[in-house]
Amino acid sequence: MNSAPIIAEQLARHFGEVKAVDGINLTVNQGEIFGFLGPNGAGKSTAVRMLTTLLRPTSGTARVAGFDVVKQADEVRRNIGVALQDSAIDPLMTGFELLELQAVLYGIPSNKMKQRAEDLLERVGLTAAADRRVSTYSGGMRRRLDLALSLIHAPVVLFLDEPTTGLDPMSRLTLWEEVRRLNREGTTVMLTTQYLEEADQLADRIAIIDHGRIVREGKPSDLKRTVGDPTLLINVSRQHSDAAKAVLARFGDMRPTAEGTLGVGLKGGAERVAEVVRALDEAKIVVEHLELNQPSLDDVFAEATGHRLEGADNAPQAG
Amino acid sequence: MSTTRSVGILATRSVRTIQRLPSAFFPALAMPIFNMVVFAGTFFAVTKIPNFPTDRSINWYMPLGIMMGSAFGGVGLGFTTIRDIQTGFYDRLRMAPTSRISLILGPLVGTLVRIALMTTLVIVIGIALGVRFTGGVLGVLCLYVSALGIATMGAGWGLGLAFKFKDMRGAAIMQLSIFLVMFLSSAQVPLDVMSGWLHAVARVNPATNILRLARVGLVNEANADHLSWNSVWGGVVAIVVMCALSLVFALRNLRKLSN
Predict the structure, then answer these.
(1) Residues of A in contact with B5 (CB under 8 A)
(2) Rounded to whole angstroms, what are the CA distances from A300 to A221, A260, A304, A309?
(3) pLDDT 10s per residue in chain B (259 long)?
(4) What number is the ipTM of this complex?
(5) Residue A105 and residue B98: Cβ atoms within 8 Å?
(6) How far apart are CA B30 and CA B186, in angstroms?
(7) Residue B36: domain span
(8) How many domains does chain B have?
(9) Domains of chain A: which residue ranges?
């Protein structure tokens, strides 16, 4: 029997006619950081809610930490830590009070509770703010507290649902470092994100989900390799758009891009950029902007789904 | 043991909001006092009705103020739970491996503490304004049992609706249903003064029996509704049955939250 900490088989969740998650198969191995990548509404959070016992699947099965998410929900809960999207924290409580609440609900003995809470507060750098109400915390502090709360019972599997959405670059880096540290200590991490860079930086393996279906799965480096050629992106004026498209098509397959930009998978790579520029010049096309991008997860996503990952360009850059 | 600790910590969270957000607790204290004073002052002549159970209007309306405050205080738990559901905080509670019953009982105990505080304050003010407990300590006890009982009913009902609707649609039903239950009962006048459909509805309304229990220690000693087993048992049964039904309603809908 497969002993992987997360296994989903044909897992589906429908809301009426809407197939939020449409029969996904997933295996996350022991000690991995697994990235679940997709745009808003792709089905990431719904899948996580099923895996964390918050939502019953319409069909299919899932086992987390060796337990069935429907039939053994309490056992699953005992073994997982979850930091959900929009850190759900009572603003009237202090950081320490929230940790105390979480500790009691997870059955941590009273004599160990205080020490555990203090250790976690120190770990996430919130010792000084422990007795302040959460309403006074910044977004980054809330996320770190959320992480500490999810670790109170030393879970074997940690779910992080878009943990850095809305955070500034410094806070993102701090959180990434903490996730890596937890993973080094043996915690299996499943991370959902809409940020390509986050998945690229953190995940050992990723799955790309779109319209409720997993469209690609593998190591980021392997997936990028499958896309092959780098993407040449150009911006031209609107009246030159069709002519430019015809020129670019001679150098490779056109790729989906943001509106107003043309992209081609440049066969032969960077060496042919000069050739493209000459061809555009001969066609009297004025190029406003040109850049060559090595294959990225966004290219993998575009190649798999036919469209770019919404909001990917807006992700705050970290390092 | 684990369930008891969970109930305790969730109750503590609920009670703590009195100190952290007193502006939210103040209306729950003010309304019963306001109702008692306004009803007793406006309808003071109600005691002139032949065979009216008491000769002091404040003796009649203080329990009503407390019961309305308790019922609304109870369903208020539904309001705060809707907020917790919408902010996602309730997901945190649901993901914990604690018993589902503790997720109901914890906030309920916190609510009952608030109701007990409110009841005590209203009684103290009521006594200062002329309330006379004809039933002594047992009469006071019956008033507390009624207040806590109707608050539990309201809380179960409010929680069940919160889990069912997960948004403010549930809140509208909570308020309307409490108004209907309270005012289609012997809230304003005794049952035998009513007639027609109102009498028929009030007679089967469990709130009538619970109000009767609340008032057993405040009506005249000679009245049939004065403290005795006969005047008490109907209210006790109504509280037990209605509390059980409302808490089962809450628990069933909590379990259905994952559906």
Answers:
(1) 104, 107, 110
(2) 10, 21, 6, 10
(3) 589 999 999 999 999 988 888 888 888 899 999 999 999 999 999 999 988 999 999 999 999 999 999 999 999 999 999 999 999 999 999 999 999 999 999 999 999 999 999 999 999 999 999 999 999 999 999 999 999 999 999 999 999 999 999 998 888 899 899 999 999 999 988 988 888 999 999 999 999 999 999 999 999 888 888 889 999 999 999 999 999 999 999 999 999 998 8
(4) 0.89
(5) yes
(6) 23
(7) 2-258
(8) 1
(9) 6-219, 229-294
Closest partner CB to B95 (pick from A53, A56, A107): A53
Do residue A88 and residue B89 have CB atoms under 8 angstroms apart? yes
**What burial class does residue A31 get, using C-beta atoms within 10 Å of its C-beta: 0-12 exposed, 13-18 middle, 19+ buried?**
middle
CA angle A176, A177, A181 (to 5 degrees): 115
In chain A, the residue whose alpha carbon lies closest to the alpha carbon of B90 is A88
Residue A103, number of CB atoms within 10 A of its CB:
23
CATH superfamily, domain A6-219, is P-loop containing nucleotide triphosphate hydrolases (3.40.50.300)
The CATH-assigned architecture of domain A229-294 is: 2-Layer Sandwich (3.30)
Q: Which of A82, A105, A135, A165 to mutate to test the interface with B (most CBs of B within 10 A)?
A: A105
| Distance set, CA A217 to CA A19, A204, A213 (Å) | 20, 11, 11
For chain A, say whether B91 makes contact (Cβ under 8 Å): yes
- For B233, phi then psi, to 5°, come to -60, -35
